[in-house]
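Input record, target 12 of the design panel.
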C-alpha cells in the first residue's frame, strides 16, 4: 500500500469520528460530557475504519484495476454497506427509526468514501 492510500484511510477514519459526534448530538437530549464524546469518536472512527479495510480497500483496488476512478463509483461503494441495517432489522434487531438510521449510515458511508477518494486524488498526483 502506498502513502496516498494510507492518508485516504486516515481521512475516512477522521470523517467517521466526526460523524459520530453528529450522531451523539442527534440522539442526546442534553449536552454530552467530553468523555463520552471522546469514546464515541474512537468507536465511530473504528467502525468506519473496519468498513474501509474490509469493504472499501478491496473495492478501491477493484475500481482502480478497471479504471473506474470517478466520484460516482465511490459514492455507490460508500452507500452499499448501509444495507446492513435493514438486513439486521429483518433478522430481529430493533431500531427505533429504521429509515433514519439507514439514511444516517448512508450519509456516513458516502462521507467516508468521498473523504477517501478526495484524499487519494490529492496525494496521488
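The sequence produced for target 12 reads:
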Amino acid at each position: 500500500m502506498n502513502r496516498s492510500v494510507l492518508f485516504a484511510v486516515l481521512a475516512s477514519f477522521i470523517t467517521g469520528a466526526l460523524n459520530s459526534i453528529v450522531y451523539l448530538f442527534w440522539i442526546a437530549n442534553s449536552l454530552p460530557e467530553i468523555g463520552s464524546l471522546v469514546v464515541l469518536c474512537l468507536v465511530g472512527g473504528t467502525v468506519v475504519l473496519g468498513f474501509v479495510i474490509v469493504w472499501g480497500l478491496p473495492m478501491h483496488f477493484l475500481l482502480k484495476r478497471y479504471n473506474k476512478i470517478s466520484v460516482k463509483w465511490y459514492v455507490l461503494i460508500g452507500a452499499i454497506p448501509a444495507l446492513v441495517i435493514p438486513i439486521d432489522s429483518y433478522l430481529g434487531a430493533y431500531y427505533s427509526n429504521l429509515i433514519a438510521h439507514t439514511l444516517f449510515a448512508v450519509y456516513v458511508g458516502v462521507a467516508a468514501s468521498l473523504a477517501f477518494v478526495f484524499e487519494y486524488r490529492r496525494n496521488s498526483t
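Helices lie at 3-27, 34-65, 71-79, 84-90, 98-124.
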